[in-house]
């Protein structure tokens, strides 16, 4: 019963459920690789800022150029799709450059900190197979498809005539008018009706008539939604009535909400093609904000959407790649915040990978004395500190305390009160930078050892039989060459160790001086200890021969095993004890296959009970069944021991409990249900390669400080907190986010705005202790209209999802859903009451920047966690719940509102992608082929009437009936269409932190049910509302609140 093999009512997990696999990072725009764009932007020659990094000298560029291994890599391609041995993974972020030396003249700041490559730099040397993520250095993967330099075509509308009239028996959704807002000193509204006044007949409409319902086609725009001007359209869902809808900014001269009835229509409010079409908003944002750099020097400006590809210039606030806020104009008082109900939160991704044309944070070294800080609140030196008394003291922007400037840091002020060296010091002119930490910032006041990686492999019957053990051992032989490193020209100094286990544990001595590896068995799992110190953790280069011999022997040693039972708790204890003995931080890679039922600490029983779903006891299924693992997690965090768990289950393994240690230590969980070597190894190996190589920090502590008036009150993510302020992360990688909620504890002022500073203390992969600092200033307002004009819907949805997904631990899912709907209704009712111009109560009026709040919120409410179908397993729900908790905004956007591309409209000549269509079945044309990307899966849906030539070009099959629905990669055919489509699939995969397996879905095939689960604007099988139904429900809730 495996989706990997036969088209079956199985889910992408492999089980018969509508679910997902592995969660990814959406692009900034359609194409951001976790670590870099396929094509660098052209250098920006616009208005130069006062602060500009110096162009790199040859010697600097070579120091951080791509790492080229001396030995040729010997990765066998895992499938036909990859001509590249390892996939082009995230190109890691710019090497943080050390910064010291005498201050130069302003145009040439940071002498020692030149960016590794200028934006239009010379060609780089080739990267190692997996876009070498060593040391944040910027390698440009050679195989990166160069096709994304042009932005996607703007959705120019092609307008049809008036809509067809339908029978009176079809009720209709009343009007949506979108009013432009008056912007006082901010960017113009991203979408307003006046932007598309001219019909553009030369562009064919993208959206197809619904193939599955009779009736004439709807006129639509190129992006697949109703024209903004012209007569309103009929609702595509027959028999469904939606509320009249207007999206507007604060009161301005308003267009008429209610148009006169069209001939042939019932009198009353005319229908529209639903509110806020997501594709239109996304395309408008690309058009308006994707063409020039986003300069962060202006306080409180809302960044481009995560779906827009843009370049960032750091001029004093952190890049939106590091921090995104729900509101960039915060209410001045707590009463105003309570009235609006808009959550005040920031989604912070401290080690985010940057694209190639952006410089990573510069490193600042203040020597023995360490970073300059405020005496009272301990905030780090940043652009918000005000120097006074000729530069001898500074006043803290966070707490207003005045602190002496140390003599070595003194500098004179210019006529404006700024320090003369302001633009030569990253900490005075930039939003993000790093300090080298002194020994005072180290555990026990001693410099940390370099971290270690320990691989713990389950060798029970299931793990051997499904091929996992052999695949892992084979892969590790080459993967160990690509351990993360800071300097690409120097070998990684991460040490490695190996353990295998079933009911007992086997430790291996792989000391370089041995002729053969030695095995030591520990059968007393109740009292775990490491039987050897010398020879367990070793340097890869020194012990290579012994390690390879061991990895060759393990599959043979256990080939005939009959042992089916496994332990799990002692496995993590073993890794933890080894790190304690070596006195270092590190990461455990655990490859595990079954529920740990053998007699040992952390033993679990099978508690899978579908009958509890929908009852008040359902919450117990998301909670751990024993407290053993939370205590163990606490010990791991104290040691800096991060755990990544790779699961290969054939049945229930209690992910809710096994996941406690990974999610508390900053680790990740990967799940391959019904794993089969042949079909699934490509996805697993790509995930493993990325996971081993990605840039990360160890033994990290994060603290968020804010200016007087607000304070951080709540945190979401994969971490542990032993007090109310410090977020402790045994490991922090470039894909993990921490979400912070703020509450008022005093009044804020409009003049000063609100400030936040996120400081992360961590050990780099070379063993250096560092402080990464991100600063963010937002505006404050006394008018609700200003708040509603500066919100970011994608970030609000990311926060709501995390809030709700944590809520299911202690509340019935129905209550969690109701509270989300209630809060959303309150946000919109408050806007309607206080900001919108008076209009008939029969209309739903939305703020311009929240037009998509209802459509996205409905996707969260219908998700498998909050509204499960009968076919999703408890393990998958637990897995997804834990996955979403650490997701960034780009990932959550794709997760809740997948991207659906009409592949049959692909232009093989240009670089632009076809404009996406909305996630609804009626957007699918029987003659089309569509690519759906959820961040965890890729589906290629093939219509039954697709042209023969198209099928021949993509599949090499002359007819629909001859397409093999079991294929997981497209055949490599020598035609531009095949080549371009495979490039697009590879670029989508490169943007995500997890590898997306491709599934081919033929129309009317069994797999189509899973595919339709992701068409989130439609009603789903488990009772989730369609978009129109939900709008009506929201409108009713808002009217109740207003009356």
TrEMBL record:
One of its GO terms (biological process) is COPII-coated vesicle cargo loading. Its main location: cytoplasm. It is found in: Cytoplasm, Cytosol; Cytoplasmic vesicle, COPII-coated vesicle membrane; Endoplasmic reticulum membrane. It is a peripheral membrane protein. Signal peptide: none annotated. The keyword Glycoprotein does not apply. This is SEC24 homolog C, COPII coat complex component.
